[in-house]
Predict the structure.
Amino acid sequence: MKTPLSEPRVPAPSTESGAPTRPARNELRTQNQTLADPLQGPRVAPGSYPSPEEIRAICAMQDLVARNHAVTQSYSDLSIAMGQLLGMENANWSTFATWASKQAGVSVRGEDLPKRFTDLLKRFDAITRPLTKVDDLLRKLGVPVLPLGDLGSAGNDALQNVSEAISEGNKKVFEEVGQELSRFVTTFQGATQYDAAKVAQYLSEFPADKPVLEEAFGHYTQAMFEADANTKAELILMANTKVGLHEQRRLQPQIEQALDAPVKATFHGILRQTIEANINALLFPANLAGKAALKSGVVDAVLNPVVDSMASAFRRFSTEHMMKLAVPGSALSLGNDVPPPPGMETTLFPPHLRTIETPELRTLLRAFDKRPDSLTGSGAEDWSRLDQRMNYIIDLFRTRQSDPALFDPPFGRRGTYSVTPPAPRVA
């Protein structure tokens, strides 16, 4: 037998005044759900989640910051809508995607990244030592030295490449998975029992090149009508993991672009242009020595060690920056092992997922989780590798699936969307 079912849900504790300690979440859960007919299943309020058309419109936005904000908000609203149908006891994939998208927004906005990179350079002896030789040469040529502030600014283009890659990946996944989440809610809200013919028709509309995504949403349809809490939790974990696998495969080019950007060429080009501009600003004949140094390769020779060290520091910085995830109540470093949730330090996983009985899920865990019933070794040393990302993500999903805080709105409110008749599916 599996671990016994968890105890019944306990109402939120009250304050001395009798008000719930966290009323916002409960209110947000109910305000999107209409009162269903007794002969119908749960329904989701019109306009409380984005339609496929609105998702495509969001993806067409050119303002990357505004687009990320809209994507994050939409994921949250789709998460609540999915929760209306699947039950709020288990986080669905969109619940996790909300916080991953919000974290991506930090990169898209580039919050203090140049300054933080400059601060790193100041502490990096491998840069300051060869930079001294560059400064000595520039003084001999009669041109200004390169202050660390300029070196930090030189990283702006490389940082922009990282931000653009993350933004593009964020949009790509949302455009694909977001539309399927919306279609799931529209298709199955109000249903009272599993309808094999309806499910088959629904799944037949998935593109042929997305079989894992189709399988994932097939598990969601099963979970929607599953009465056993253990089996239901496993079906949702299996669906979340398969959507995650599809997502991570699709993101591979953007992750590689972000981590393997041509930073050496970027840094070298910007620094050399700065030096060349300073040399050209000198009057004749004072600029002759500088022009000769540029032509002979002397400038390049002293720049190369600085550029190499800057590229190394930048990869370290950008990898560390990408490998963070802030979720309600904690900030996770993806290079470290997934920490157990508070109160689960010995059990690691929520009650319904402490042991896994579904054969297909056990096979899936064995394929991607180095140690399926342990969090040891879950940290990703190289985020560019799909196997290491999935090893971390599976443990993240399994440990946090029953955390109700994940359903909190990322910006403190719910979104609103137009109420329009469903349009024919676009292939």
Q: What stands out?
A: Residues 47-319 form one domain.
